[in-house]
């Protein structure tokens, strides 16, 4: 059942942590003069109109990108991020999805492989990527992203950044992420895998990052950003996390330098905090 639509959530606090981590990772991959693949298993629509009915329903972006763009005295990596966002999206009424960000942060020599299962969001993704002139270096498939990822590994250049960003509306996403990572690492052990997950008062959301760390206990990074207190009834997402397997060199330092400010900007009450845990080979 595909009920999740990212348009309701685009530009929220979780997108800030996810897209900033993706930005730092792609910037690092761009430093080496060798092509790589960007694989997005759950792409969404690629671009969102913040004035649209869905984004306006709850207005989650007001607690995310709107705050970040108004903030001052940003540490340099965060201001580089907002600077790039303004370049690739001059209209502040729009916010990018991960494929749009990757389209503009990768180089002509790099390739993009995008998966999206929802028929309406797949159609939006195709149109938006056409608008972004993705061209021949990108392929978009209306297919299951978990299986699609495995079918591409190992990628020909033997360098890849993989974003795994499911909706987690169904419990099976937690199990499938762990299983897919296990299979992916067998085929392509050196890939850089970024997994986004919600921080909820649910056993699966607490257990999954721990299971992922065990797949690569000597080379992972975990960043979590909580924006408010957990609700007593246990519902709602009070924070989110990124679990990176084979993180880029310096990602830990860059996040240590920026997460205090990002947390301050996104804080909705005094329970806001971040977690940064890593093991680097
Ligand atoms: C959280 S959104 C993705 C947001 C996007 N990565 C971004 O950062 O802009 C998750 C997307 O996954 C899609 N989806 C759900 N199950 C899927 C599957 N098995 N394979 C591919 N896409 C799927 C949903 O339709 C939804 O658009």
Overview of the molecule:
The protein is α/β, with parallel strands linked by helices. It has a single domain, classed as 3-Layer(aba) Sandwich (Rossmann fold), CATH 3.40.50. It is built from ten helices and ten strands. α6 links the parallel β4 and β5. The longest helix has 18 residues. Bound molecules: S-adenosylmethionine (SAM). The site of S-adenosylmethionine has 20 residues, from α7.
What are the main properties of this structure?
281 residues; 19% strand; DNA_methylase_N6_adenine_CS; binds S-adenosylmethionine; 10 strands; two-stranded antiparallel sheet; EC 2.1.1.266; Rossmann fold; alpha/beta
Attached small molecules: S-adenosylmethionine
CATH superfamily: Vaccinia Virus protein VP39
CATH topology: Rossmann fold
Structural class: alpha/beta
**CATH class group:** Alpha Beta
- Runs in which pLDDT lies below 50 for 5 or more consecutive residues are none
The CATH architecture is 3-Layer(aba) Sandwich
Query: Beta fraction of the residues?
Result: 15-25%
What is the topology, as strand order, of the major beta sheet?
5-4-1-6-7-9-8-10
Inertia-based shape: globular
Compute the CA-based radius of gyration: 17 Å
- Give helix % range: 40-55%
Tally the beta strands: 10
Pattern of helices and strands: HEEHHHEHEHEHEHEHEEHE
Count of all domains? 1
The main pleated sheet reads as: 8 strands, mixed
The number of helical elements comes to: 10
